[in-house]
């Protein structure tokens, strides 16, 4: 569903964001950015009281190509269905993780279902060892993305998959895969095979608060961006955009999500040997 952008979302000033090691510059409408991302809404929480900073916010560790796709979603309100065909599964994983960094649950839900659809196009296809390693190094335990990878391997992986990858697979993944295989042994499949519910991989953010700080019922939450009240926007002091070249950069804000560390001495081989007794 395309996004309907109002005047306030596009006329309330711009913010400057530098992404990647080369500091690729992006200029974004502040109200649109903050209405889509609670992370940026927190950074620019006083935007109705003070001028918008002219110095850029920097994310040197992020990929500017992935960030550009995230911004495209903000402006258009949807993820193109051809995105997997012109990028890759790994790109979708990167986009899901970046959306999580900026707390954009709606984009995460769209992307994970694109991932799920794309991987299912080829019967028996599994996520690669590199994909698994990347996801487990950039997500927290109980992440829906981790769950998707475990479900995929529990359903499609063979003994050959495990043998070729067991030395590079993260121990938490092996542990969760072993648990999933044990659980599957107790499940009676129907004629069409086991199909996990779409909701299994969704993220449900807490409902927003109204102006008095009270939680709004979910049925009242709009699917479209929320902007600052018009009376506050009328009184805003706006810093006009200026040339981006040769400007000093600010220190990057702390990431909202830190990689999950994996212990070096975990007995992977022991877990793998136990898994060999289960049906993969």
TrEMBL record:
Biased composition (Basic and acidic residues): 223-233
Domain BTB: 15-83
Position of the signal peptide: none
Superkingdom assignment: Eukaryota
UniProt region (Disordered), positions on chain: 223-280
Residue ranges, compositional bias (Polar residues): 248-262, 270-280
Protein name according to UniProt: BTB domain-containing protein
Native source organism of the sequence: Aspergillus awamori
């Amino acid at each position: 569903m395309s996004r309907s952008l109002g005047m306030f979302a596009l006329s309330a000033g711009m913010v400057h964001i530098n992404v990647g090691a080369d500091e690729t510059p992006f200029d974004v409408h502040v109200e649109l950015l903050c209405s889509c991302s609670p992370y940026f809404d927190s950074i620019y929480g006083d935007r109705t009281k003070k001028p918008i900073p002219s110095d850029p916010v920097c994310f040197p560790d992020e990929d500017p190509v992935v960030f550009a796709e995230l911004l495209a979603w903000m402006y258009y309100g949807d993820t193109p269905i051809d995105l997997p065909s012109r990028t890759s599964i790994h790109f979708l994983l990167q986009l899901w993780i970046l959306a999580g960094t900026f707390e954009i649950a709606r984009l995460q839900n769209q992307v994970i279902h694109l991932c799920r659809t794309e991987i299912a196009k080829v019967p028996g296809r599994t996520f690669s060892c590199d994909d698994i390693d990347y996801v487990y190094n950039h997500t927290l335990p109980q992440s829906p993305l981790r769950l998707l990878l475990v479900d995929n391997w529990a359903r499609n992986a063979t003994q050959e998959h495990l043998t070729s990858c067991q030395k590079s697979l993260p121990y938490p993944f092996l542990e969760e895969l072993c648990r999933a295989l044990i659980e599957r042994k107790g499940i009676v499949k129907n004629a069409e095979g086991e199909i996990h519910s779409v909701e299994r991989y969704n993220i449900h953010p807490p409902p927003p608060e109204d102006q008095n700080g009270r939680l709004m019922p979910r049925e009242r939450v709009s699917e479209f961006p929320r902007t600052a009240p018009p009376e506050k926007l009328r009184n805003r002091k706006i810093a006009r955009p200026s040339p981006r070249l040769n400007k000093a950069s600010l220190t990057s804000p702390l990431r909202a999500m830190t990689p999950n560390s994996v212990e070096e001495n975990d007995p992977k081989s022991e877990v793998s040997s136990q898994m060999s007794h289960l049906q993969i």
